[in-house]
Amino acid sequence: MPQHPGVYGMATPQTHGVGGLTFDTSKRRWPNEMNVLIALVIIVGIFELLGQLMMGQSFLFNSSGRSDSIFNEQRLRIIVLQVSIVGIIAIGVTQVIISGGIDLSSGSVVGATAMIAMSFAQMGLVNGNPNPTLALGPWATDLPVIVPVAIGLSCGLFAGVINGALIAYTRIPPFIATLGMMVTARGISKWWTAGKPISFPTESYRVFGDGLMPVFIFVALAILFHLILRYTVYGKHTYAIGSNEDAARMSGIKVGRHKVLVYTIAGMLAGIAAIVLSSKNLTAQAGMGTMYELDAIAMAVIGGVSLSGGRGSILGTVIGSLIFGVIISGFTFLRLDAYYQEMVKGGIIVAAVVLDQWRQRRAAYGA
Amino acid sequence: MRKLILGAIAATLMSSVAHAENVGVSMALFDDNFLTVLRNGMSDYAKTLDGVTLQIEDAQNDVAKQLDQINNFVASGVDAIIVNPVDTSATEAMTKAAESAGVPLVFVNREPINVDTLPDNQAFVASNEQESGTLETKEVCRLLAEKGKNPARVYIMMGELSNQAAVMRTQDIKDVMKSGECQVELQIIDEQTANWSRDEAQDLMTNWLSTSEKFDALISNNDEMAIGAIQAMKAANINMDDVIVGGVDATQDALAAMAAGDLDVTVFQDAAGQGKGSLDAALKLAKGESVDQKVYIPFQLVTPANIDDYKSRN
């Protein structure tokens, strides 16, 4: 088995070196994402079977007779919709983890960014009365939509630059740097309005979270970053740093600068997620995005991204996020209590890592 | 000279103590919307009273800091203490600290674990959580009966399962069903948690809608989740006139949803009233008068009929 599946497709050269590393793609059987995809299919199959047995209904297919489509389209939509916002974060987190780091701050950055961006996206009048949740004052109402979007993106970007710079230039571990940002950003989101919610956005700001828009944004960003990671120098350097930082440095990669870039991209993606989230909910609240960072990390890990760096892909993370979505919808479909949902989610995360470790050991010892 | 000044200061202080009430207040945290309304209710009320001074401190959600604040209040000789406990299971030590110094103590909003063994000069002021879910469910029942939906199929959306209010409000629904106070028969299709969150509620409602089960009402433990569910129903082109939606809190967002005709029922918890009530109890205890040890400020039902009374209250 190759050490770095996911970096190169089947059609790439047989051997190639970055930073003194050599990949041998001739021994690979199938891409890593295939395992995750099989897991997804199995889980869907289990819900389909249980649905037929317990509910007398199909999980995936249309059994209501309300329309003539083959699938239960509403369920397919919600499966993706409910993970698309955390999925956007997971795209950034995946890149951070592949580069050998970790980002614990994304959930809090989402909260702070949502609060700040939403303050510039409020309507002046609600049902003819002044907006009762104004964060800044009448001057910040009914602004063109570009203002909150630009501010939201800048907030995410700014948080990412700080994360990256701290990690690259003070050499503190990513865990600590982003933990600091996690606490600070949550503090900012509470301080911004002293805990009061910010609601009633302008019509134009509602676009980003309306209907299936979060899904389109998620998919577009996923495709974009999947291609970037796979086919550009940026991507190759990210994998190289995650596999062996010293070797990457020796081979001339500007490791520090590259890390800042990776965390900045992750921060900006969190900013995008914040805009979509606040737009979808028509409100921003201080507690928004809590625990999103862990869900995003879990999606990546389930999708085959190795926490030791250098391995994984956006495609894997996307499939990982779908596993999340299928579980949430499946449990609601079966009307099982929420308690079980969390327990199963935890079990799947651990199982994914155990499987991954086992696969890596087998690869290392050439089983 | 110095002695003289000190003596003068002491004399002034003592004379002011003689006809003024100093009350120390320790709030669990300042940056909480509800507790801020409560705190402002207390201080606004104090301003209307002659010679009552409040010293309000922020315990920043720290149990140890809160106990320190209470001990400091005792040491500086306040006439009464009001505590909004950080942790309701850590109130024993506060009761002891105030009791041994003979200072009256009033707990506000959060029920202390030792509420049934409080000494005579201590009390508890809050709203009875049991009322909120009961008022909500009864009004939902009334609206369902009005529409002739009997039996009615309902979904229940619960708050965080580790939270007392979520457990209590959900129990209220079932108690109303059992007590026969509901004019229609409620059939619960499913009850799930959306962790008080609008976003999770949107997703949960959409998941429910994908089962194409017919339903007549949604009873939610709070307004945020009710609003999330409304957004999901509207996205699925459900006519909001056909569904009864109930929440609790009467937040600004909820009142707007009610004005738009989407939300049918919500319940107002009188934060400012609790603040005022706790100060009243503290002042009475400071004067040596007796008060009820459990003072309940009633929840209030909010419907489109009386919505205007609540628009400026939180």
From TrEMBL, chain B:
Source domain of life? Bacteria
Protein name (database record): Sugar ABC transporter substrate-binding protein
Please state where this protein is localized: Cell envelope
Predominant cellular place of this UniProt entry's protein: other
Gene Ontology CC annotation, any one: cell envelope
Organism of provenance: Ferirhizobium litorale
Return the similarity comment: Belongs to the bacterial solute-binding protein 2 family.
A Pfam family found in this protein is Peripla_BP_4
Phylogenetic lineage = Bacteria, Pseudomonadati, Pseudomonadota, Alphaproteobacteria, Hyphomicrobiales
